[in-house]
Every structure is written in C-alpha cells, then in structure tokens.
Design goal:
By secondary structure, this protein is an alpha/beta fold.
C-alpha cells in the first residue's frame, strides 16, 4: 500500500433521527454526500475499496465508485462500535454515558472505546499490509477521528458525513503507532 483514503459513510436514516447503531440505508442527503465523495475521488487512483459491513458504508462506497472498476471487500474490524444497550436509542444518551466513563469501560452489553480502537488498529494494519497501491476505506466517523485526533476523546461524532482524509503509507503507519501506544494505557 502506498496511500489510502479513509471516508465516512453518508448520512443514514438512523443518523438523521439521531439514533445510534442499526443498519439503516442512506437518506437522500446521504446519497448526495456519497456522490460528492465520488466527485472528490475522481482524480485519485483506487485499486481496492474496503468497507465495514454496515449497509450505509457499502452504499456510500457503491455510489462514490459508480462507473469505476474497483472491487470492494468487507473488513469486519472496520465496523462501528458496539453500542450495547444504547443501540437504537438516543445519540445524546450515549454521548452522556461515554463522556462520564473511562475508555476501557464497555457500554453495558457492548464494547469499550479502547476495544474498538484496538480493533481499528488491526484493520489499519491490514490496510498497510495490502498489496494494492491505492486503497479506499469507507467506514465510520470514529475510523477517521482515530487517525486525525492527537489522542482519542470521549466524544461521539464531529466527523462530517461523506468526508475523507488521504494518508500516505508513512502517515498511516505513524498514526497506527500512536494509537497502539494509547491502547496500551487508554485514558481520556
């Protein structure tokens, strides 16, 4: 892998209702965001697209890559956080919970932020090990913010739907090493 673009899926029906979790399709706005992502990617070579299993990520990838001959693969480790008892509930309730608990404490019946980020590190390492030169990853907001924030934060959202970041191999390797250090002793 020489470089990778990491993109957040477009707005989903559940996100529009400010509900966490679920596997809802894109809204019309989300479809437009995916098409806009495709326009921004038009001049960038892409050899392979990796997505989470979520319908919203797969739909975003299909719309963004329409007309291009790019194979897509699902990588389960890029899946959204397991929200546990908060799945299907209010985004605000989950935000309040995550802000008041340490990163290694899982939501009841779900996954901790630290566990999620360790899973993402495995997925980022998989990207680094790919034979293809140019990789597109379409996943979730935390997938991008984990790579751009100096250190993980007890927040949810903040990454625009359909947004993307472009990293070289060296840049991705540096960010993965930083995340691995954080995962050894997670703290907000």
């Amino acid at each position: 892998m020489d470089d990778a673009v990491f993109a957040r899926h477009g707005e989903s029906e559940t996100a529009a209702r400010r509900v966490v979790g679920g596997d809802a399709p894109l809204t019309a706005v989300g479809q437009a965001q995916a098409l806009d992502l495709g326009r921004r990617l038009a001049g960038i070579p892409i050899d392979i697209c990796l997505t989470s299993r979520a319908l919203r990520a797969r739909e975003t990838a299909a719309l963004a890559l329409a007309g291009r001959d790019v194979a897509c693969e699902i990588v389960d480790d890029f899946g959204d956080i397991d929200f546990g008892v908060f799945a299907g509930g209010s985004l605000e309730e989950y935000r309040n919970w995550i802000a008041s608990h340490p990163p290694d404490e899982p939501a009841p019946g779900g996954e901790s932020r630290a566990t999620t980020l360790r899973r993402f590190v495995r997925a980022y390492r998989l990207v680094l090990d790919r034979d293809e030169s140019h990789v597109l990853v379409v996943a979730h907001g935390l997938t991008l913010s984990a790579l751009t924030d100096e250190r993980p934060r007890p927040t949810v959202a903040g990454v625009a739907y359909g947004s993307s970041i472009h990293l070289t191999r060296d840049e991705l390797a540096t960010e993965v090493a930083r995340l691995e250090r954080w995962c050894e002793a997670p703290a907000w």
